[in-house]
Design goal:
By secondary structure, the chain is α/β, with parallel strands linked by helices. It has two domains: about 1-35; about 35-195, P-loop containing nucleotide triphosphate hydrolases (Rossmann fold). It has helices at about 10-30, 50-65, 80-85, 105, 110-130, 140-145, 150-160, 175-180; strands spanning about 40-45, 70, 95, 135-140, 165-170, 185. The protein has a six-stranded parallel β-sheet with strand order 3-2-4-5-1-6, with helices on both faces.
């Protein structure tokens, strides 16, 4: 709370000095951050926005002229707005929607495992390709949660990724091994969702 006995000029002067101190402290912190390398990034949690945030990073990479690979482990049976947009950048983005829907849609565990295995094979190909700067493994955590792929092998492969490559993994219930291996983990928490009020998934919001 500002002192009511101070005039505007004095308040502005004190504010400026405070911001100068903060700026100096920030510069000192930034001066110690010198390493640049590819990150393993995990978006998890029950809240909405995991894939949305990941596609935000995809757009950033496109803006910098970086090539991006995307493998979608669950989505595939339905169209999405993001895939339609990214198809306009075929020189920068390779998007492979290799899922067949959620497990309750397929109701066939062997088929789900086969789809997850094929998607992981594609992911490994992208990870090994030096032309990619970022690889997004959308909903990988879901297939790991259901045991469709061996968690230990997947995490070991991600830890061994090329040094300059960013890899983003999305999906709720990320396994502890993946969280431990990651450089950056964000958990989306659910506070409120319109689905609980009877609102269906809508174009432009969910897909």
């Amino acid at each position: 709370m500002s002192d009511p006995t101070l005039g505007d000029d004095e308040i502005n002067r004190l504010h400026r000095e405070k911001m100068e101190r903060r700026q100096a402290a920030r510069r000192n912190v930034l001066a110690t951050k010198t390493e640049e390398r590819g990150l393993l990034i995990v978006h998890t949690g029950a809240g909405k926005g995991k894939t949305t945030a990941a596609f935000g990073m995809v757009l950033r990479c496109i803006g910098h002229g970086m090539r991006v690979g995307i493998v979608q482990f669950v989505k595939g049976a339905w169209g999405t707005g993001e895939r339609t947009v990214l198809a306009r950048f075929p020189d920068l983005v390779t998007c492979r929607a290799m899922g067949e829907g959620f497990t309750w849609d397929t109701q066939d565990r062997a088929r789900d495992i086969a789809a997850a295995t094929s998607a992981w094979d594609m992911a490994q190909t992208m990870i090994a390709d030096p032309s990619y700067r970022l690889v997004l493994l959308d909903e990988l955590s879901i297939v790991l949660r259901y045991g469709y792929l061996p968690v230990g092998d997947i995490v070991a492969a991600l830890k061994a990724k090329p040094r300059d490559l960013h890899v983003v993994v999305t999906g709720r219930n990320a396994p502890p091994e993946l969280i431990e291996a990651a450089d950056l983990v964000t958990e989306m928490s659910l506070v409120k969702h319109p689905f609980r009020a009877g609102v269906k998934a809508q174009a432009g919001i969910e897909f």
